[in-house]
Structure formats: structure tokens, C-alpha cells
Amino acid sequence: MFDSLTERLNKTLKDLRGQGRLTEDNIRDTLREVRMALLEADVALPVVKDFIEHVRSRALGEEVSTSLTPGQALIKIVREELVRLMGDDGEGLNLNTRPPAVILMAGLQGSGKTTSTGKLARWLQEREKKSVMVVSTDIYRPAAIDQLETVAEKAGAAFHPSSSDQDPADIAAGALQAARTGHKDVLIIDTAGRLHVDEGMMDEVRRLHEVAEPVETLFVVDSMTGQDAANTARAFADALPLTGVVLTKTDGDARGGAALSVRHTTGRPIKFLGTGEKDDALEPFHPDRIAQRILG
Ligand code: GDP
After folding, report:
1. ipTM score here?
2. Is 181 exposed, middle or buried (0-12, 13-18, 19+ CB in 10 A)?
3. Which of 53, 100, 169, 279 has the most CB atoms around its CB within 10 Å?
4. Hey, which of 108, 111, 115, 191 would you mutate to test ligand 1's pocket, going by the most ligand atoms within 8 Å of its Cβ?
5. How far apart are CA 156 and CA 121, in angstroms?
6. CA gyration radius for the chain?
7. How many CA atoms lie less than 13 Å away from 133 in the CB half-sphere?
8. Which residues bind GTP (predicted)?
């Protein structure tokens, strides 16, 4: 991720590092380049505008003019504003509730929901020492239920069976009961996806949300769709109280526009990155580390 953005920003900012003085012209030219680099990375326009405005107003302020190394000071501002754009400290999962803590996974078909459900189950079991149960409410694709069973087995998580003749809300209620009885810490509910956002799909997810009362409702979205990922996430966030986003397939996304747009566009934090097809290819999202990666 961010290959070309990193290259472009480095080229632009490299010249600044040694600068003893920055003029308004220097700053304007630099910001123009940064703006182009972000647009090429497929960051949404309103996000770019807001970002550049923040950097500009800080760059023209005292922080830079009184610094002994103005070039460095400007780079520091770019770094800090990148972190702010992605949500400051980053927010991990909030599982502080009476167990089982329910995590609802929503998203379009093919976005990586089932894969991410398995990865998350494994991460919670191995890293956080939680006992996890997973369930699929995708009654439209029996193959999806089988896929989750395989994924759960590999992750060492309990699997609550379901079948295509059941009602999704009944499946969720049954799984919740089973997770309670089995003293599970966490229940992850994988849901059906469609190719596009539609009302039927939203109604179903809303019903699942009512029944399962999740502490985390995560929207899973393919980062390769760039700023569209952020727009799809916003459509979901408007319809459902999302608590965060899982950004998948970042290993195939050279540009990084989604990672930089999601927070600003949806108001929700990215919580995890999917970084490959394997079941351990999941990273908690840390804006400061990502900003570091972008600026090389
Ligand atoms: P769902 O329809 O949303 O449940 O999507 P799946 O979990 O079935 O994933 C769709 C495809 O994306 C599968 O081929 C996955 O292996 C692939 N996939 C999911 N997450 C990632 C990721 O982070 N990186 C890569 N490279 N592939 C992924």
C-alpha cells in the first residue's frame, strides 16, 4: 500500500528537509504537489481539500516560521495531519461488555467478510486469549456457511451451525444463546452480502443488529475500490450504527486512497487491515504507524 504516494511525497518533501527558510511560495508549491499526490492515490476530493487546508494554516503559522529547521517543521505537520486524518491514536476493539461480546460483520459480497471473520477469530483467540464462536447468517449461499466452518476450524474457534431454511435473525438468536451457554467471550456473526447496497440487505442487517445487540458492528470493505470504499462505507454508516471498518486486500492496493478517506468520509475508524489471503494476515490499524509508512 502507498507505494506511489510514498514515492511522490518523498520526492516533494526531500527538498524541504535542509531548507533554512521557507517562503509562502515554497509552501504553496509543496502543498500543490502533496495535493496531486493524494489525488493520484485516489483519496476523496473533500478529504484532500480539508487535509491541505489544515496543513496550510499550520504551515503559515508560527510553528514553521520560528523553527530552526522550517523544512522539518513542515514535514512534521504533514505527518501529524496524516495521523489526525486517519483517527489519531487508533481505536482497538471495544469488547467491554458482559460476555459474549457480539461482533457483527457487514459488507458487500466478495469484500472479504468471511475471510476476515476467520482472521479476527484467530487473532482474538491467539492474541487476546478470548474464546470465540462464529456463525454465518448467509442463508442465500450455503457455500458461505461451509466456508465459515472451514475457516473456524482452522482458527480453532467454535462454529455454530446454520442452514439455508432458517431465518437470519433466528440463527443469530440461537447462536447468542449457544455462546452464552458455552461461556464464550466473543460471538462473531458473519452476514450475507450483496453485490450492491440495497434496501432488502439493509433491512436484514438492521434486524440482525436489533436481535444480536453487537458491541462492535464492523463494515468490511475492499481497499482496492479506493475512494468508492469510503463511499460504500458511508452508505452503511448512514443505515446502521457502525463502530468501525475492516479494510481488506491492502496487499493488492498500491494506492491507499481508501485508508486515507474512510475516517473522514464516514466518521468511523478503521480498526483492522486485511493484508493477505492467509488466515493470519490481519493487522490492527495504527494511524501513526501508517503515517510513518507513508512518509517512509
Ligand atoms: P465475502 O463474500 O465478503 O465473505 O468474501 P470472502 O471472505 O469470501 O473473500 C473474497 C475473496 O477475497 C477471497 O478469495 C479471499 O481470499 C479474498 N480476500 C479476503 N481478504 C483478503 C486480503 O486481505 N487480501 C487478499 N489478497 N485477499 C483477500
Report:
1. 0.99
2. exposed
3. 100
4. 115
5. 8
6. 21
7. 23
8. 107-114, 190-194, 248-251
Is there an atom of ligand 1 within 6 Å of 114 CB?
Answer: yes
Taken as a whole, the chain contains a residue count of: 296
Q: Is 87 in the pocket of ligand 1 (CB under 6 A)?
A: no
Would you give per-residue pLDDT tens digits along the chain (296 residues)?
888 899 888 888 887 777 777 788 888 999 999 999 999 999 999 999 999 999 999 988 877 777 778 888 888 999 999 999 998 766 789 999 999 999 999 999 999 999 999 999 999 999 999 999 999 999 999 899 999 999 999 999 999 999 999 999 999 999 999 999 999 999 999 999 887 778 888 899 999 999 999 999 999 999 999 888 888 888 889 889 999 999 999 999 888 999 999 999 999 999 999 999 999 999 999 999 999 989 87
Atom of ligand 1 lying closest to residue 107 CA: 3
